[in-house]
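hiii, so i know i said id send this last week but things got crazy w the move. better late than never?? heres the sequnce for the chain we talked about at the cafe, plus the structure i predicted for it. fair warning i was half asleep when i ran it
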Amino acid sequence: MADSAETVKKTVDQAAATAKVQGEQFKAQAEKVQAAGTQALREGMEKTSASLAELSVQSKQNLEALTASATAAQKGAEALSAQALSYTKSSWEHGVAAAQTIAQARSVQELIELQTNFAKSAMETYLSEVTKMTETLTGSVKESFKPINERVTATVEKFQAAR
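okay and structure toks below
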């Protein structure tokens, strides 16, 4: 019986040693898996954080472009308004002066000549002002869309580079 007790003891010791080795191997493997998972999580969080930072920068630049666009549009509207006010004032003054001159006409012939000259001058001034206002409006629209176009171009380039 002593032999069988020793055989059982050896078998138990070998099983315990094998279990201990397998337990250590399992523990080492679990630590590797945990380390790899932690590393993957850390990298994912860093990428997410970097993406959010980039998104924040893009949003800020887009807001700045919209602000610059609105500012340019406002300046254009102010310039257009100033031109219209100036034209209205000068047109009124020119009309009053013409009326005074026409009122002093001594003949129908002179009246018709003065009226014709006034109408011709008024039409030329009007066409000149319309041309100036059109140029101002066109320039204003270009200036107001410029910051937005630049942001769209930058975004498209970024997407193309990401492909």
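btw The two ends are 77 Å apart (CA to CA). thought thatd interest u
miss u guys!!
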